[in-house]
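## retry 2 of 3
previous attempt timed out at serialization; input unchanged, resubmitting
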Amino acid sequence: MRLGMSEYEARAYVATVSLGEATVNEISKESGVPRSRAYEIMERLAAKGFVETGNTSPICYRANDPLTASNRLMEEVQHANEEILKGLREIGRRAEKRDNPVWTLTGDWAIEHKVGELLDAANKEISFVFLNRSRPLRYAGLIARRAADKDVTVVMAHRPEDFAGLLGKSRIMRLRPVPGMMNEVEGTLCERGFVTRDGHYCIEMVMVVDQDTTLLLTSESEGDRAIIVHGTVLNLFGHDAVNRLIEGAEELTPGKK
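## retry succeeded, writing output
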């Protein structure tokens, strides 16, 4: 069903696989598909190439190889997806565009997709500051791939030496305290990240792309949240803060721990 079959089609096909070869009546009993619908469903499966029809009386059906059926369904899903994307992109081209400089994303998939999108869109340089200990591992593959042709700097608050060799050609640095940086926001730096004094927010990562876009990743009670700022004075503050952290950081050298 997740690949596009209706419930009755899925039930009938699985029943046919389990029976090996069966009549409509037998498939109906095994699958729970009503007898009044079973013949129609089996003919539909036959038309799609999922079962073979025997030249018998009563008619028997035999399931085609499940791998072949699965590949066929995947092809249909892929084709449907391409058509949907084509239509949505056309709708998007006609839509009115608004110049909103600040956007918010929630959910692991959406955030990881946006990080990858920003990495791919970068023209020259990308900077990361990881305040969370485990977060760099999630993006290590994306960072290593982009570091092959762009300037990537990664500053880590926790054990950056553990990531030597995992981030490609990235410049890896150890975070050092910068006087005055946290005067405006009180909190504590721990393995989770920078936790504000009220405990409502935990800053895990800051990402700056081409000095033009800043992504701030926080962990909150409702889940992860990414705030993306593009081309505004707020982005200048983000870029300046990250630059100050980089300037105060210690660059790792081979073999240095």
